[in-house]
Specification:
single chain, two-stranded antiparallel sheet, 7-stranded mixed β-sheet, 165 residues, alpha+beta, 4 helices
């Protein structure tokens, strides 16, 4: 379990992030067109998993915008923005913001991604949502970088994540 904060107040997650050097857990998430996406669908590409509580918060929106801008410059790399938001909200946000270089995926129906990756918040006002995390995977699904942002309201270390590619 990781101990993080929201506005300085302690919050816990259900586990630990996948370790650098390990193979990332498989997942099934919902795309904005309501089809299913799995980790296997992205085999052969480097991945930045930008994980956050909700696209409808300022920090989460900032991370999507930042990675959207960076993604257009990255070779053989996809940015997956993952939250428990409904796919409709993810699609609305990206349409309104002109965001086209990321793939939005939702864990709304089961929350299994958050549980399997050890990042589901287990207490506090956002209990059940994902904590703010960035995980970078190589083309074979090996974890190259994992950051659990210690204060939910803070942005991740973009440079460290992108340098891990």
């Amino acid at each position: 379990m990781a101990s993080i904060t929201l506005g300085g107040n302690p919050i816990n997650t259900n586990g630990e992030l996948p370790k650098v050097g390990s193979i990332a857990p498989q997942f099934q998430l919902i795309k904005t067109d309501l089809s299913v996406a799995t980790l296997a669908d992205f085999a052969g590409s480097k991945l930045v998993l930008n994980i956050f509580p909700s696209v409808d918060t300022g920090t989460c929106a900032a991370s999507v915008r930042h990675f959207n801008e960076s993604a257009s410059k990255l070779e053989n790399t996809k940015v997956l923005c993952i939250s428990r938001d409904l796919p409709f909200a993810q699609k609305r946000f990206c349409g309104a913001e002109g965001i086209e270089n990321v793939v939005n995926l939702s864990d709304f129906n089961s929350g299994s991604f958050g549980k399997d990756y050890g990042l589901e918040m287990t207490d506090g006002p956002l209990s059940g949502l994902h904590s703010r995390v960035v995980v970078v995977l190589d083309e074979n699904g090996t974890v190259k970088y994992a950051e659990q942002v210690s204060e939910i309201a803070d942005e991740p270390n973009y440079d460290a994540a992108l340098n891990a590619l």
